[in-house]
Amino acid sequence: MKKQTKAIHFDYQQPDPYGALSMPVYNALAYEFDNSAVMADSFCGRNDLPDYSRVTNPTVTYFERKVREITGARDVIAFNSGMAAITAVLMGVCRSGSEIVTSRHLFGNTYLLMVKTLGRLGVKTTFLDLLDTEAVEMAVSRENVSCLFLEIMTNPQMEIADIRKLADAAHRHGVPVIADTTMIPFTEFNAGGLGVDIEIVSSTKYISGGGTSLGGLVIDYGGVDGFDTLMRRELLLNLGSYMTPQVAYMMNLGLENLNARYRLQSANAMAVASRLAEDKRIRVCYPGLADNPFHQICRDSFGGSYGAMLTFELPDEQSCYRFMDSLKLVKRATNLFDNRSLAIHPASTIFGPLTAEERKAMDVSDCLIRLSVGLEDPDDVVEDIFAAIDVALA
Ligand SMILES: *Cc1c(COP(=O)(O)O)cnc(C)c1O
């Protein structure tokens, strides 16, 4: 079966007594056992029976197994946010004294998790230019490097590094590769095939189906010894950030129609980017445009689609504010890949808590607007954006 068919036709592990067509929400917290021996086996991981919904729940398990079926991974674990998934993975591979090698261009909270929260626990992070494969190879050759962490398309810089090359370098030194693939859905490409050992997705974005709920996925391709056991037998229990059944239900519905939404949303983004690129007053960045420096690597790595996020630059911060305040259709909001088009000024919001020096080091420009293109007719989105640009530049 093709991925889209699996997204619809993955059967649940036990037949539903009523023949329900969608996986029911098992809003149960605890589960009864036939006898103490079976109960002991469940608590000690010797069978798959659910015991407590902080660790396992039939509705969440169904969603996890469907993603496993689609990605061909060894295991998939669902968390209650993208950040919870990233935290669990880094807690799994790092210990006091270890070093994370990563990009200067990172999602704001991932950066702060590494620098502040993990920093306090004695984990060091080195930020590099991931386009410089030699520098990365030098860094991963050091002792105590726990992982190479990367985002497949950085936000908001829209940089796309050569994952296969970086993974080869990391693997030459026995270092696992962890990739945040939130920007392109896992239905479009195979992260495991590019050399990624552990894939992380904020399912809040494309999967949830229009911003319905928060969630995260850890997709384990089996490259790290014992990682699946560590996650299921230790971290899920101790961190307590497992996905809830209601959210798994919504994520599953979103996954069923992801293909339809993604086709339209990425085509709309291409249409909006192409129209904006004709306006010489602004600088547009979208990897789908043929003159974008990452066009080729994006096409080669991610199956020929370019996602629904684009950015453009206005002359200064004040014109960005005027642009934002003049929007009538496009919403002033964070989040990505909602059904509605969204705009944000990243420097003053997501990256606002950072210092100006930190923003500069991360190439987060004060002049940048980020757009997530939705499912509206792109003509209406373009009209709203051009009207707001006219005000911004007046
Ligand atoms: C949104 C996002 C996250 C965090 O996900 P949440 O579900 O909001 O916790 C992590 N990485 C990237 C690239 C994101 O866009």
Short description:
Helices cover 40% and strands 14% of the residues. It is of the alpha/beta class.
Helix-strand category: alpha/beta
Distinct ligand kinds: pyridoxal-5'-phosphate
Query: Termini separation (Å)?
Result: 54 Å
Radius of gyration from the alpha-carbon trace, in angstroms? 22 Å
- Per DSSP E runs of 2 or more residues, the count of β-strands stands at 12
Enumerate how many helices there are, as a single number. 13
Estimated share of beta-strand residues: 5-15%
Biggest β-sheet: count, sense, barrel? 7 strands, mixed
Structural account:
- The protein has helices spanning 3-9, 36-43, 58-71, 82-93, 108-120, 133-140, 163-172, 227-239, 245-277, 295-301, 317-326, 356-361, 378-393; strands at residues 75-79, 99-103, 124-128, 145-151, 177-180, 198-202, 216-220, 283-285, 309-313, 331-332, 342-344, 368-372.
- With 394 residues, the protein is of the alpha/beta class.
- The strands form two sheets. Strands 1-7-6-5-4-2-3 form a seven-stranded mixed sheet, sandwiched between helices. It has a five-stranded mixed sheet with strand order 8-9-12-11-10.
- The protein is globular, with a radius of gyration of 22 Å.
- Pyridoxal-5'-phosphate is lined by residues 81-83, 107, 110, 151, 155, 180, 182, 202, 204-205, 214, 216, 336.
- Residues 81-83, 107, 110, 151, 155, 180, 182, 202, 204-205, 214, 216, 336 line the site of pyridoxal-5'-phosphate (PLP).
